[in-house]
Amino acid sequence: MKKLLFLLVSAVALFGLIGCSNSEGSANTESSGNDSGEPVEGGELNVAISADPNTLDWMYTGESAARKIGWHIFEGLFALNQDYEAKPLLAESYEVSEDGQTYTINIREGVTFHNGDPVTAEDAVASLNRWLKVSSVGEITNEHVESVEAVDEHQLKIELNKAYTSLLSDLAAPKSSAVVIPKSIAEAAGEQPLTRDQLIGTGPFQFDSWKRGDEIVITKYEDYASKEGETSGLTGAKTAYLDAVHFKVVKDPQVILNGLKTDLYDYGEGIPLDLYEVIETTPGIEAETSNNGYSILTTDKSEGPFEDIKVRQALNAALDKETIAKATYGNEDFYGLDGALFTPNQTAFYSGENIEDFSNYDPEKAKQLLEESGYNGETIRIIFANDYSDYKKIAEITEQQLEEVGFDVELESYEWATYLEKWGEPSNWDMVVISWSPFFSPNQAGMVGQDSNSSGWYNSEKWQSLISQWATAETEEEKQQILADLNGTLYEELPFEKIANVSNLDARSEDLKNYTSWYGPRFWNTWKAE
Amino acid sequence: MLTYIIRRLLSVIPVMFVVSIIVFMIVHLTPGNPAFLILGEDSSPEAIADLEEQLGLNEPLYVQFFTWLSQVVTGDLGTSVYSEQAVTDLIFANFGPTFSLMALSMILLLSIAIPTAIAIVALRKTVLDPIFTSVSLFGVSIPDFWLAILLVLGFGVALPVFPVAGYIPLAEGFGGWLYHLLLPSFVLAIVEVGIIARMLRDSMLESVNQDYTKTARAKGIRERDVLVGHVFPNALIPTTTVLGATVAGLLGGTVIIETLFTIPGIGQLLIDSIHRRDYPVVQGVVLFIAAIYVLVNLLVDLLYTFLDPRIRYD
Questions:
Q1: A487 to each of A358, A462, B5, how far by Cα in Å?
Q2: Helix or strand or coil: residue A212?
Q3: Radius of gyration of chain A (CA)
Q4: What residues of A are in contact with residue B160 (Cβ under 8 Å)?
Q5: Nearest Cα to Cα of residue A190 among A28, A294, A60
Q6: B38/A55 CB distance under 8 A
Q7: Which of A180, A228, A440, A496 is deepest in the core (most CB within 10 A)?
Q8: How far apart are CA A516 and CA A518, in angstroms?
């Protein structure tokens, strides 16, 4: 698919014609498991969410609570399809110059913001300029961007300082997302998060009200200009059948399930995996799972025992990941033992090469490696946030397995905010238990990206050179090779220990029809049975 | 009397000042940084430093304290770090549900505790008295979260009489308001019923054989009227003192009950703000709760003069 697109674009560029890459992902694997019947217009949906987002400014924040509501309100020039590939959304078409340094993007005509104003190139330019500053993804992109300018009312041009093929993936990334908001708002907000009267996008639903700690209401946007083509991921045709969706903050998962049973809620988000059996055995409620990234152990490579690669190798051999995953996530449907940098459902990025050392469990070898290393019985401090029982389980089993091969381990648990502060200082920890939500191109991999606490101060020339190769890689073969090499680097340098790919569990009332599960709940194209 | 009230109100000021210092110190010395929490785990150190500056968190602690205090004195509790809302607005918006919950539990509490206590004193020579003593002890010992879960499973899920969660403001209809609050209020009240009923019973039993009750009986007044008209009012003084403390207990209990029943009240606001390190909101809410405690105690002291005219504050 990618190759075809590339050939098409370059062929078109050669002949100096306007390229139109309005092609949709053909591999639409969305499965609609329910017998939907005829769509029903109207009705209100009550969705229980486990956390109130800090802000609904989806461009500003990377938190998942904002994403799950944000993508109903906001849309970007590009968005991910079902297979996590970047496809045009507000963009009609785009063209890449031969040297790969200029992207000319045409915006779909007839799209309006929720305030009624038409979407112009000026709005997109102002939005992108804000995104390059406030978004954690945009900051990465910004290193490659020379300028963003409007050409005419519906065309804009992005000039890069050198070829950077991740641009579209960055623009489509559904975290701190490059959404299009009115120019006046983008400029007024600047580097501050949007206030609630600035929450104006182009999505099928518009922001209505927010009572903090209680509920967020979005209502159907009557003048929504839907893209044509099959719905896939965040792109394609979207229809809002529901008049309104109420996102209600419900912290106790048991209350969410009780509410689903008694029709108080139609959908519940973020259910702990150990309640899966309850969902399965309750008539009228269906389990919905979605990709939730993976859990890892990050080691502090700036100081302490794990600075020594030998000790990290010993760690790799000491961990029985299958046991950890089974004890933590229980049901095999909720975890996947796979060592790759991307998860298998991210087909555009997944490579299964060079991951043999992912499961390398051999306690004898671990003991031997540890003896050969510079480890002198120092206490390994594992810190984790106790707000999530998964982290606690992983930490406890890891402690057992490490002590078996001769490590001295101490666990320290903190509540989330304290944990974040502790994490910032290398002297506070040797290992953290954390999970990373999916990322959408290799340069967005937060757990290895920056030489900071999130990567455990991982600073690898090899990794950085592969990332810069990725930025200019053109053919599919080249990309696959880089992805394989990235995997290989993970096991050669062991910046972190991947435990397992994990799923997020939601619960849906059977009355919610034509619902399809993907990377989080989407309430367009679905309706409530009468 | 008026001078007394004024004097008492003035004495609130140093109390609130001390409370504000303690709250400020506890909140700011707790590890955690709102800038981290707002920006997320893969944010750059520069972005965090920028946000800290915007929030004024880069200033020395004492400067932050006096900036905050000078606002508080003018009645401005600051603005939430997360939303653009003023802390006073947040407290005002969230106090309705909490106040409704407390008021309804207080009504339930008194309407269960008072008749029970009077009945038990009337039947003090029967086997009901020791039974009551053990049952009330049992009531006091039930953890409210456990009772809440049982009642929700019983009357929310198995026998769907009441909603399992949610809240409707009184302004949107009395029926819906009562319907949503009855179960949580009952849970909140039932734990305190045991204490208040026991207290009333004990105080009433003390005066059941006093000279004035004997005189009343000798005048030919019916036993029922002796209990309700003579014994009960005299038992009210110690009970009122306990009742003042009960208000504090109810306020504490709302934190748990609001979470279990998803009621958007002060307790939820406080817990959320602590998790988010939303300093101005935590400080504002704690100050507000402290003010309520102080005022309730003042109210209790003033109530004594109505309950017992012999008490005077001059």
A1: 10, 12, 75
A2: coil
A3: 23
A4: 262
A5: A60
A6: yes
A7: A180
A8: 7
Which H helix or E strand runs over A281?
A: helix A276-281
What is the rounded (10 degree) CA torsion for B170, B171, B175, B178?
-10
- Residue with token string 């680097």: A489
Contact (Cβ atoms closer than 8 angstroms) between residue B44 and residue A136:
yes
- Asked if the C-beta of A209 comes within 8 angstroms of chain B's C-beta atoms, the answer is no
Number of other CB atoms surrounding residue A252 within 10 Å: 18
In angstroms, the CA B37 to CA A438 distance is 19
Q: Choose the CATH number for A294-504 among 3.40.1190.20, 3.40.47.10, 3.40.50.1980, 3.10.105.10.
A: 3.10.105.10
Contact A202, A127 (CB under 8 A): no
Asked if B32 lies within 8 A of A420 by C-beta distance, the reply is yes
As for the ipTM of the complex, it is 0.82
- Distance, CA of B61 to CA of B49 (rounded, Å): 16
CB atoms under 10 Å from CB of A38, counted, come to 7
Minimal CA–CA distance to A455: which of A423, A412, A417, A418? A423
Task: Note the pLDDT tens digit of each residue in A275-293.
Answer: 898 999 999 999 999 888 9
User: Residue A28 and residue A31: Cα distance in Å, rounded?
Assistant: 9
**Closest CB from B38, B43, B262 relative to A255:** B262
> Looking at beta carbons, which pairs linking A225-228 to residues 24 or more positions away fall under 8 Å?
A225/A108, A225/A110, A225/A111, A225/A112, A227/A88, A227/A89, A227/A108
Q: What angle do CA A271, A277, A280 make, to 5 degrees?
A: 90
Query: What residues in B contact A213, CB-CB < 8 Å?
Result: 94, 264, 268-269, 272
Which pLDDT belongs to residue A6? Answer: 46
- Tell me the DSSP string of A237-252: -----SSEEEEEE---
Residue (of B164, B162, B38, B185) closest to B106 by Cα position: B185
Question: Nearest-CA residue of chain A relative to B43?
Answer: A136
CATH 3.40.190.10 residue window(s) in chain A: 38-266+511-528
Tell me how crowded residue A377 is: count the other CB atoms within 10 A of its CB: 10
Element (H, E) at A485: helix A476-493
CATH architecture of A38-266+511-528: 3-Layer(aba) Sandwich (3.40)
DSSP state of A297: E
Among left, alpha and beta (phi > 0; psi -120 to 50; other), residue B202 is: alpha
Q: Tell me the two tokens of residue A49.
A: 């969410």
Which part of chain A is CATH 3.10.105.10?
Answer: 294-504
User: Residue A317's pLDDT is what?
Assistant: 96
Give A-chain residues touching B153 at CB under 8 angstroms. Answer: 258
Q: How confident is residue A10, by pLDDT bands cut at 50, 70 and 90? A: very low
- A436 to A204, B27, B116, B206, B230: CA distances (angstroms): 29, 29, 57, 66, 70
Q: Which residue of A lies nearest to B44 if distances are taken between CA atoms?
A: A136
Cα–Cα distance measured from residue A129 to residue A138, given in angstroms and rounded to the nearest whole number: 9
The pTM (predicted TM-score) of the whole model is: 0.86
Of the two residues A79 and B80, the one the predictor is more confident about is A79
Between chains, do B275 and A416 touch, taking CB under 8 Å as contact? yes
